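the two lines:
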Amino acid sequence: MDRQSAEPVKSGLPRQLLLAAASCVAVYLSPALSDLLVYDRRAILAGELWRLVTGHLVHFSPTHLFFNLLGFVTVGLIVWRRGYSRFWILCAISSLAISVALLLDPDVTSFGGISGLVNAAVVFAAIRGIGERGRWRWFSVAILILTVVNSALEAMTGRPTFAVPGDQSFVPVPLSHVIGGLTGAIMSLEPWRLPKRRRCHSECGNIMW
Amino acid sequence: MRWEKRHTLTIATALLISVLMLVAGCMPPKSSHYASSTVQYLYPATKEHIETPAIPVLSLPLRVGIAFVPETSEAGVQNPWWRVPAQGSQTSRVNYAAVHSLDEKKKMDLMKKISAEFKQYPFVKSIEIIPSPYLSPGGSFANLDQIRTMYGVDVVALLSYDQVQHTDEGLLSLSYWTVVGVYVFKGEKNDTNTMLDAAVFDVPSRKMLFRAPGLSHIKGSATPVNLSEQLRVDSQRGFDEAAVTLAASLQEQLDLFKEKIKESPQEYKIEHKVGYRGGGSVDLLTLALALAMGGALLWTGNRRNR
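prediction for all of em together
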């Protein structure tokens, strides 16, 4: 992974992030829109494929929306400010990956929530942060270890380790967090740049990652 | 002659002490037994009709009811021979049983502890704690049907218990002859064996889904003066410890049951209620990590390579 050059991080608020957050709120406030966009297994299998991506914008209760958006906006701002590229590609791919994984579980007939993307972004930011210098690097290592341990516990027990208490409007699906984390890890390693790096390694004679 | 008199006195004293020791040491053990039985509640002897279980249809997420089955009438105290009440009199047994059997508050506390085990499972929508007066002795499935209608539950976890307490006289009981010893020395040795049992039934199909036991064994000692109090303490402790092992056992049995459903789909039919949905909810730890990253970003001065 490249060591980043010293340059000021981006300031301000990314419009796309605000747009995504506003979309979540709008979808929550409109039940008709929620019905149209929610992950519905039967509808997806009948051909309504947009639900694979849009289902993550749907939330089932104010608590569900609040905590998910708090996590998403915070981690989105971190990624933006650190200048890590391809965040939106990460969001699109992890949305698809999570939904496809959920299709393999027939028990989940309906699904909503952006938390899988939050997990993807946390892992993505932590692995990219390891490639940097200074305190941020070690902080990223700690974040990555804790996230991996937490996701492993969720995968083993099949339930969230530290769930937000009191929300019974839906059944938590930890699989979305695990798949999100895996997607974030794969995306942060930039697999599409692998052949180029290898070429560079052989040509330049020094280790780039 | 004088020597013979003294010798006789010594032998008499030794005999007296031996008899007293024999009496003190050979006191028969006291024991008490308190129990409630799921089988007696569901299949009372007076009813000839036996329910035939059908294939359970579990409609997820489940609404679970939890209740203690009524106590059995045989429960009570087996007194030593000199304390057996007169024929026809039940006074001694009833009073003693009233002191030591599970009271409603304790039952509620135990049910709350056990319901916490169910609550953490995503396929459980709600838990209803059903007070004992709603279950009639020998009420069988007809009574469970009424409860199902009243509380709107799909499955019911029936809790029963069995507690036996034995009290034996130890060597220290010899000191009771000094009178002061009765108040000072703990010559009464108590053993308390407790079993709590949870059997989960699908009411419409009359089928038991799974069961889990919780066991405990408490040893204690007491002076004769505070024996009753100590037995009560041991009894409560026995139930508390059995509830802890029951919780662990329940978790294990629930996981096994989930596997069983997957392996034998012909034995259990699973349906999803309208509105049953999964959700991706941010874990509190992930949220804390994201916020910590944000804080660290501000701390490092919003610049790279610090």
